[in-house]
Amino acid sequence: MTVQASVLFDTPGRRGRLRNHLITAVAALVLLAVLAWVVLKLKDKGQLNPDLWAPFFTADTWVNFIIPGLQGTLTAAVLGAVFALLFGSVFGIARLSDHRWVRIPAGAVVELFRAIPLLLLIFFIWYLSPNLFGGGDYALFAIVLGLTLYNGSVLAEVVRAGINAIPRGQSEAAYAIGLRKSGVMRLVLLPQGITTMMPAVVSQLVVLLKDTALGYFIVYVDLLNMGFKNLPSVYPGTKLVSAIVIGVIYIAMAMALSSFATWLEKRSRRSRKSSAKPLEPVPFVGVDGGGAP
Fold it and tell me: How far apart are CA 20 and CA 9, in angstroms?
């Protein structure tokens, strides 16, 4: 056990370890019992019939349904992540501005889009776009813009909190050697803040990836639409099986993103030392959010 971990709780003794092992064994048995009950229920309903799972072992199912849906999901996720990071960086830094005419409007924008439910925001963009830009398919545009505005607003708070987490002495030392505020931000605060923000940023990007499933409601060609709606219409009775397969794919993508982020964070911490602790997701704050959260 590390020194940092030992200050959070006392190291358990022999009885404590025995009690922990006993609780773990009981929890594992309960989990196995629940899993066995679910499997038996699925068997009673005929959902374990090999004929229902057979389509997922054919190339046509993956080529015609799963892979096109996966491509749509990843397209929306990548575009949404890139624009959300840009949006969050710009508005997060703007919320730290010394000028009220910059800080207050930026805070209003961030709090507005954090408060609107994402599905409602996507619907609003989807219905409004044909009236503004003419007829066409705006499903991808609506899902990407909705993800950008909502998740970018959350990331703006992450950026603001990450920069505020850097000890004040860092910026004071930079000002003392003659750097302007832009130089302090670019050369001192942001490099350290990136490492500090990484856990919260990755957590929000995983949320963004899962939120792409909301494209199902505007008929966007994503994994959920292709696998949960179109596929069962071709292979009747496979709706639950399709949901299980799609769920596994989503879990695999989220775990892959988290693993990549963990590797990136460790590599970043080896190459750059930050004096601030990693951030947790931040709560709502007021519009005039110039100070520390």
Answer: 14
Q: What is the pLDDT of residues 53-68, one digit of tens each?
A: 888 888 988 999 999 9
Cα distance between residue 161 and residue 233, in whole Å: 47
Q: What is the rounded radius of gyration, in angstroms, for the C-alpha atoms of the chain?
A: 24
At 85-127, the pLDDT tens digits run 999 989 988 888 888 898 899 999 999 999 999 999 999 999 9
Q: How far apart are CA 181 and CA 100, in angstroms?
A: 16
DSSP H helices, the chain, are: 3-6, 14-44, 50-53, 59-61, 67-94, 100-115, 118-133, 139-164, 168-176, 181-184, 190-211, 223-225, 231-234, 239-271
- Could you give the CA distance from residue 144 to residue 79 in angstroms, rounded to a whole number? 6
CA atoms within 13 A on the CB side of 191: 11
Full-model pTM: 0.76
CA angle 263, 268, 272 (to 5 degrees): 160
Cα–Cα distance measured from residue 220 to residue 73, given in angstroms and rounded to the nearest whole number: 9
Residue 162, SS3 per DSSP: helix
Length of the chain, in residues = 293
* pLDDT tens per residue across span 139-189: 999 999 999 999 999 999 988 888 777 777 776 677 777 777 667 776 777
Contact predicate 109/264, CB 8 Å: no
Closest CA to 273 of 142, 167, 172, 200: 167
Dump the DSSP string for 211-225.
HGGGGGGGT--SHHH
Specify the pLDDT at position 8.
46
> What span, in angstroms and rounded, lies between the C-alpha atoms of 185 and 274?
14
